[in-house]
Amino acid sequence: MLAPLSALIAAAFSGLPLLASLTQIFMPASAGFIAQFFPLFLLGAIFAKLMNDSGSVDIIADRLVAALGPDRAVFAIVLAGAILTYGGVSLFVAFFVLVPMAQALFAAASIPQRLIPAAIVLGTSTFTMTALPGTPAIQNVIPMPFFGTTIYAAPGLGVIAAMIMVGTGLLWLRHAQRSAAPVTDGSGQRVAAGIDSERLREHGATASTFDPAEIEQGRQTAAPPPLMIAILPILVMIIANLILSLGLFANREAPFLAEPIWGETTLSAVAGLWAVVAALALATLILIMANWHRIPDLRTSIDAGANAAVLPALSVASLVGFGAVIATLPSFHAIRDWVLGIDGGPLVSLAAATNLLAALTGSASGGLTIALEALGPTYAAIAVDHGIDPAIMHRVAVIGAGTLDILPHNGAIVSLLALCGLTHRESYFDIAMTGIVGSVVALTVVILLGECLGSF
Question: 25-47, pLDDT tens digit by residue?
Fold first, then answer.
């Protein structure tokens, strides 16, 4: 509601017609985002819900934590979060599994509870969201239509960025753990989180691809699957993504897409999205087949997953509509010229634009989409004119959006702290050190390597 209202206020101060701004600019832009990305929201949310209700998420995290033990409690939570989110499990589903698990594990290891949010953020909201090649996170998908890339864009640069994020984050958590007095505060019980909190839902609307209110819908199995069955859908999705993105679609031509009925586009512009959607659909089918008699109420679980996709998709689409109205204002041309004129070249200015908008919206996906809707064609043209591989543009844009989005007003941060029963005063400094500092360093290194060596 605030996005269209803010757009209309901005239009009014610029002397633009209000109703025309709403129906001819705001709504087409919002609808365009839904038309392009809703299949990804829908399938991703259904996949996450079925992974949760089949017990697969719990068994993967439990086995991993048990294997590493309390002595490696911090690393166990980071690694569990990374496997789940890189495997396509939505952010909030991972939160609801990891928080009670981390509370118990940290209490057993006498690690301060205030470090739980930072460990979870490092594992779920940094390198697996923006850096690792092949991640199905919506942030890694959004740039593909603008640059004609895949989710494997600039894989070498992505791996280097991921290593920097993981390394700096774990170093800080290790330092924070050693410098803090060991405590056993008795908060390690698996307590029920306030998942029905309206405040939690409001903050989660633009922070994930899953509506938190739907997590409690349906029933979770009482008999989780064996580990190999639990991890099978994740492996299917990763392998299918790889084959479709770099194999099948990369070696095909689709001239029919140039016809008006198909949107006058090219295969390179849609192949990346097709690959992710097809891989998610296949992984979901395998998940259902492997757990057919294990999921207590399959229909309810699928319904809940489908419902969980709607609020986040519409919330981000509303932000996109707001950005489209702002892009038509006369003053925006001055802002665009300023951004494009930032010293350091197009990669630096692109990183600055995505950082700024993600920080303002508190949403990596919302900020990234606004930036690319307004400036994506310009940066694509710059890439052609300057001989810059669009894959570098893709990776810089994604990492940039996942840096300053982790400010205190970010919905995922607010929600995670609420689930942990902690405050910003207690935990935010460690979140910033693991989530922001490492990402800024990684972004800087990627830009320098991209300008010196190109894409790899």
Answer: 999 999 999 999 999 999 999 99
